[in-house]
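Tutorial handout. Part one gives the primary structure; part two gives the three-dimensional structure as tokens.
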Amino acid sequence: MKTPAIVTAAAMTVAMLAGNASAQSNLRDVTEITEGLIAVGTAVEISDKCGSIGPRNFRGLAYLNSLRNRAVALGFSASQIDDFTDDKAEQDRLEAIARARLADKGVVEGREETYCAVGRAEMAANSAIGRLLY
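Part two.
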């Protein structure tokens, strides 16, 4: 079974996110982190399901690194970050958000052309998702 894109994106951040001091109680409450993970996961999902659109891997890694840096700047510890990214319920929550947003934009599971249309629209809009695609 293929790993969902948002789960893959969250797992990638486990190795990338680290910090020292703890300033907040939960990364789930930091919108810029969760929205960043959703954007990366959505871009990966689109690139996986649309053969004519690919991921900007280096840009994606740089973006994940910026999320890491932000988490560090906010004072999250490595253990808090690991707890967040390893939490299956949290992964499921972020994946559900990403899939609902894709559906709202017209994606139909199993129909490649719908992923391609959304991907092209995101690129044209120069959105956070679109900047991670080519």
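Part three, for discussion. The mean pLDDT is 85. The chain is about 65% helix and 0% strand.
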